[in-house]
Amino acid sequence: MRELKVVGLDVDGKRIICEAAGTGEKFILLPDERLRAAMRGERTTVPTLKTGGEGSSALTPREIQARIRAGATVEQVAAASGMDVERVQRFAHPVLLERSRAAELAAAAHPVLSDGPSVLTLQETVASALIARGLDPESTTWDAWRNEDGRWTVQLAWKAGMSDNVAHFRFTPGSNGGVVTAFDDAASELINPDFNRPLRPVAPVAPIAPDPQPTLPVAVDEQPARHEEDKAPAEPDPAPTAQKSRSRKRKPSVPAWEDVLLGVRSGGQR
Predict the structure, then answer these.
(1) Are 187 and 169 in contact (CB under 8 A)?
(2) Nearest partner of 203 among 163, 159, 158, judged by Cα
């Protein structure tokens, strides 16, 4: 709960001007019967506000900066304290710059691998890992915040398809830019040069064996056989042809001598 002190009265003499301790911010207080009774020392039914609870009262500038430094956003602090976003932004701005600077230093630090710190920086290592997986390293965003133990946690966010992914590192400033260590599995995948699993939160898919070339039934073209069958009866029968040839070449029958004497023709007619 913030402490106010009375500065004076407004020009109309009906409102009290108060000032916040430490910031010099001015407030106007409208006196009522409860205030007058409190000034006389009388008990009133004014509810007592709880201190320290989120949303119960405004926060001091130091409290605002402490929450922003711990990773909260301006909107989260404003919603929790009931303060205006513009007022929270005024005190949060220098701390946001501090967080951005810590993220830049962490990106330039060297990730610690199984055999010691890497020669490449964290940003170079992450860019190589994303490119190898077909992702755009320019679409990443960096953030950092300070933990209760004073150490910095660095967050890297990127998009893979329709999924949003994050990886967290622990940053320790030091000589030659400092070092970073992986804090979760996603961070380990990014800095591990031998890790080939895709950087996506999807379930593993069992490999599908390629389908063998289907054996199609061989279509038997019966048309040629039918042609052969059709052609076979069409061949002329040699026997009738020979018979016809013989009939055509047969000489006219000569009547017998008895038929000539008796006057009988070959057809049996007289």
Answers:
(1) yes
(2) 163
Q: Where are the domains of the chain?
A: 1-46, 109-191
pLDDT in tens, 32-83: 777 776 766 655 444 443 444 444 458 899 999 999 999 999 999 999 888 9
- C-alpha pair distances (Å), 32 with each of 46, 94, 191, 196: 12, 39, 65, 71
Nearest to residue 123, comparing CAs of 74, 156, 80, 151? 156
138/128 Cα distance (integer angstroms)? 12
Q: By the 8 A CB rule, do 68 and 55 touch?
A: no
| Cα torsion through 200, 205, 209, 210, rounded to 10 | -50
pLDDT tens, position by position, 228-244: 445 555 555 555 555 55
Residue 175: name the closest of 120, 105, 99 by CA.
105
Cα→Cα distances 158→131, 164, 184, Å: 12, 6, 15
Q: What are phi and psi of 4, to 5 degrees?
A: -120, 150
